[in-house]
Specification:
Helix content is 48%, strand content 20%. It is of the alpha+beta class and 294 residues long. The protein folds into three domains: 4-129, no CATH class; 134-165, no CATH class; 167-293, no CATH class.
């Protein structure tokens, strides 16, 4: 194919591992190209060349690692009635999304140990000769009936799948809407109660000649100060919880982006604006005569 420097197969599939106590554990097996081992993880124990040894597998130390009884180099497992020997322990950027441990081996061993249909290649990893060749490669692949994606496009497609085509995105949206409704109702009720408790003071200010725009400015300042303070405390609490979670789970994937902060800030502004509007309407309707008569 024009523009391609080289291409290698990559296998990804599921299997059952029998542990020493006789229980079975689901695992994800990744088969690397036998020649290049392209896509191999970073080893923290063992030597990568040992993956070529008989029955050699590399285990990923992540949040799911204890499900394999914390194996070490030399540990033996039974994978689909085949002997598997751990020859290395590796680390990856993030653990899997399905709560299963991950094992790496060679492509040929993966398709040999795991029952598969006719086609065994999950992905083809392609290295273009230059970035200018990427559009041409995409067109050639699409003419074959497949899809070619860059690393960034593949990551975005994966994220879009879980957000829009699974229940994860819907659940997050529902939680966000509920949080917004609860925050709006509580802050609005609290601010309105504050206005009612200080109604006499606002009436007295009106009676001595304070203009309506000064009262409105006073209420807006209080609402703005409260909203910004709450926003800062909320962001700080989120950062603290993420930091604590990463101490407990090194592969915990969560971060605050500028987009998240902007959306949260916009929601806080809307809540403060609605709460201020309710309070301002009540203050502007105050008649000093009614206050002193009461």
């Amino acid at each position: 194919m024009q523009g391609v420097k080289y291409a290698v197969p990559l296998y990804s599939g599921g299997a059952l591992v029998k542990l020493s106590d006789g229980t079975y554990q689901s695992v994800t097996v990744v088969g690397l190209d036998d020649t290049s081992l392209l896509g191999r993880p970073q080893l923290i124990e063992g030597i990568i060349e040992n993956i070529y040894a008989e029955n050699g597998f590399i285990a990923v130390r992540d949040a799911e690692f204890p499900k394999l009884e914390n194996p070490h180099v030399g540990s033996e497992l039974e994978l689909n009635d085949n002997r598997a020997v751990i020859v290395g322990i590796a680390t990856v950027a993030t653990s899997g999304l399905y709560g299963t441990p991950t094992l790496y081996t060679t492509y040929e061993r993966a398709v040999q140990y795991i029952p598969n249909p006719r086609y065994t290649i999950s992905y083809v990893l392609v290295e273009p000769k230059s970035t200018n060749d990427i559009p041409q490669i995409k067109q050639q692949v699409e003419r074959l009936g497949y899809r070619a994606r860059t690393k960034e496009e593949f990551m975005q497609r994966t994220a879009d799948f879980f957000v829009f085509q699974t229940g994860g995105g819907t659940n997050m949206l529902i939680m966000t809407l509920i949080s917004f409704a609860v925050g709006l109702s509580i802050s609005g009720q609290t601010f309105y109660t504050f206005i009612l408790e200080n109604l006499e003071r606002f009436g007295a200010l009106k009676a001595i000649g304070t203009k309506s725009r000064d009262l409105v400015a006073m209420i807006l300042f209080q609402a703005t100060f409260t909203a910004f303070t709450g926003y800062g405390l909320g962001v700080g609490l989120c950062v603290l919880l993420i930091w604590l979670a990463r101490l407990r789970l090194p592969s915990y994937a969560a971060m605050l982006t500028y987009g998240n902060l902007a959306i949260g800030f916009a929601m806080v502004v809307v809540i403060a604006a609605i709460s201020s509007y309710v309070g301002i309407r009540r203050v502007l309707k105050i008649e000093p005569f009614d206050i002193f008569r009461g």
